[in-house]
Amino acid sequence: MSELNVQLFSPENLIDPYPAYKQLRDESPIYFMAEMNLHVVTRYDLLREAIKRTDDFSSKYDRFLGGARELMFSTLSDDQKKKAMDIESQMVEIPPTMLTLDEPEHTQFRSLVSQLFTGSQVKKSEDQVRAVIMKNIDTMKGKSDGDFMEDFAFPVPLEIISDRLGIPVEDRDFFYPAATAAAAGLKMAPLTPEQIIERGQIALDLQKYLIGLVEARRQDPQEDMITILANSKLEEADRELTHGEILSILNQFLVAGHETTTSTFGWGMLALCDNPEIQDKIRGDEKLIKTFVEETLRIEAPVQGLPRVVTRDTELGGYALKEGDMLMLRYGAANRDERQFENPDDVDVERAKAGMQMAFGSGVHFCIGAPLARQELNIGFYELLEHFGAFSLDASKGRPVADPSFILRGLPNLNLTYQER
After folding, report:
1. Could you give the CA distance from residue 362 to residue 368 in angstroms, rounded to a whole number?
2. 1 belongs to a structural domain
3. Residue 214: count of CB within 10 angstroms of its CB
4. Are 297 and 360 in contact, with CB atoms under 8 Å apart?
């Protein structure tokens, strides 16, 4: 058992985890955090191995998420608990689908929506993606400063995933803030009791809205993801998906298709501000921009880590594990492992095999939306650099700080100055 005392999930380390990650990789690449009963894995080779060994390390970690919920509810007064439980009693129960299932059940659900994210399907959506990007670039024109997250990084992925899901334009004034609140749930960031109840009500309202849309698509199919989910059958069971199963899949896409792409736009823009020479170097060069995007994903993985459950007594890298133990795979640490990436803290737009980063995970749970996210990011940074130059931080607003989140890594704001080209 390690004698280290690394408070990996302290507020300070959630904001800047990288020194702690390096210490753990070097001194204790699998580190037991007794206070959370977690074995934290930080080295690239060990993460790769754990992800491949699906028989030993299961993705059925609902128990972990349930524990986080119980911890959150423990902060409520009796009256507040009553309100929260009343809201929860009206909600459809969400069963495990893709993220928290193993093979073969995982593939049953994944295969239903994978058709929307093939290379050819993503290619077909390029004009639509570019149109959304250009619309938001137009809002930045005529200005020389602003909050990049508000002007571009938040609205672009949210509109694109809403189009892909099939959310009617007239409903988006409700859907955008509700979807943002739902995606933020995975941050597992501390909330006040009032925020917990407010989030619960928003989640209930969103459930009711999406169920209504599912039923509408069963009567009047469209070309969108909700139609596919509403009208598909699980072959093994020969039945339509339940409302809970559909909501589970849609919730995952709100995070994978919105929150993580937003984060990467923010961190990429901050990298351009911190390394102004890169702006001119990659401008107009699609190949270098693609590498820059991979480097951004590597250096600031939007999903910092996810759990796995040990299914039987085993070992990982010589470290003994028992059935029922909980692993935490820290992608954010593995992506800066100097054993895998030379000068791992630097943005290298000519890095060979930059795509080996693990921001999208690996193996059977590799992010299904990765092709769409890469398309948005590649086109987005290409067009931003075509239309603007001299991006820099607005010195009057100070340096942005990451959201202190247990799972995700995002920037709440990014105040810039820039020049129109």
Report:
1. 10
2. no
3. 20
4. yes
Give the phi and the psi of residue 39 in degrees, each rounded to 5: -105, 110
Query: Which pairs count as long-range contacts for 28-37, CB under 8 Å and 24+ apart, including other chains?
Result: 28/2, 28/4, 29/317, 30/316, 30/317, 30/319, 31/2, 31/4, 31/6, 32/1, 32/2, 33/8, 33/9, 36/9, 37/326
Q: What pLDDT is attached to residue 185? A: 67
Q: Which of 16-30, 89-103, 213-227, 261-275 has the lowest mean pLDDT?
A: 89-103
Q: Is the peptide bond before 104 cis (omega within 30 degrees of 0)?
A: yes
Please report the beta strands in 186-303, taking only residues with DSSP state E, as ranges in sequence order.
Answer: 233-234, 239-240
Per the CB < 8 A criterion, the answer to whether 375 and 129 are in contact is yes
Please answer whether residues 20 and 8 qualify as being in contact, where contact means their C-beta atoms are separated by less than 8 angstroms.
Answer: yes
| Token pair of 24 as six digits | 């753990």
Distances (CA, A) of 367 to 14, 113, 252: 23, 12, 10
Q: Structure tokens of 102?
A: 């193993």
User: Is 3 inside a domain boundary?
Assistant: no
Are 419 and 144 within 8 A, CB to CB? yes
Band of the pLDDT at 98, cuts 50, 70, 90? low
Place of tokens 């990014």: 414
3-class DSSP state of 326? strand
Total domains in the chain come to 1
132-188 pLDDT, tens per residue?
999 999 999 989 999 999 999 999 999 999 998 999 999 999 999 998 887 776 666
Contact residues for 326 (Cβ-Cβ < 8 A; gap 6+): 37, 38, 39, 61, 64, 307, 308, 309, 310
- Does residue 70 belong to any structural domain of this protein? yes
343 neighbors 315 (Cβ within 8 angstroms): no
What CA–CA distances, in Å, run from 112 to 12, 97, 211, 240, 368? Answer: 41, 11, 18, 11, 11
Residue 130 lies in a domain: yes
Q: Which domain holds residue 416?
A: 11-420
The CATH number of the domain holding residue 338 is 1.10.630.10
Local structure of 175: helix, strand or coil: helix
Q: How far apart are CA 13 and CA 368, in angstroms?
A: 29
| pTM exceeds cut of 0.70 | yes
- Predicted confidence (pLDDT) per residue in 18-42, tens digit: 999 999 999 999 999 998 899 999 9
172/159 Cα distance (integer angstroms): 9
Question: Which residues lie across from 308 on neighbouring strands?
Answer: 327
